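Hi D.,

Good news: the full-assembly prediction came through. Inputs first.
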Amino acid sequence: MAYVIFGNHSSVIVPRQNRDSIRKFYCDILGGKITKEDNERDFLRLGENFYIGFLYEDVPDESEFLRTARSVWLEIKSENVEEMSRRILESGLVRKLNVPDPHLYFQAPGGQCMRLVGINEDLSFYEGAGEGPDVAKVKGALRNE
Amino acid sequence: MTKKSNQVDYFKMGNDFYIAALYDDTVLSDSDLLKSIWLEIKATNAEDMKRKILAFGVKEIETWDKAHLYFQAPGGQVFRLVGDGEDLSKFEG
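Then the structure:
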């Protein structure tokens, strides 16, 4: 029996100048909705019930640090991975990450790194089943980002 | 833990959330680790869980939200602890 489970609310402080690109990417490309906004923050909902609070401040761009995978990377799911991959890359708003894995890894505006997978895809590879990702190769690739 | 090795451990949280922790020798400052996205965990008994977490010895993070525990777990990830079933609409806009 689990003691805790993950919740559906997250937050991150991002540079104020990234606000437009964050909104365009998370809303126009990923289909998110802004549920509330004020001068300092946006509450954004992805899918039915996952919320990200973007807190805008005059902070430095930490994209380089966030690409190192020293901060947690998230996974997003789509019913149509091919179409969503195309939309994400053609938006011009992301940086594609060269991770040795069949999925699209990218850095979104604001710096969050993500992996795109299919909704019904077998992802046991990332859950401890079988060989799992080649960690040495992944680390090597990240050092080159 | 669903799998472990010298380089990576796979943790299953709840029914269907997985974290892969990749181990490395480099060290980051606490301030670096605060730059990442903060996540939320839910407990059926948040008060009891809060006591356990603090007794373990995590670093508590001071925020405007005095109603919840914010802490930095080993490895640096920052979490907010909430109660399962709690009204969290204030974090939804």
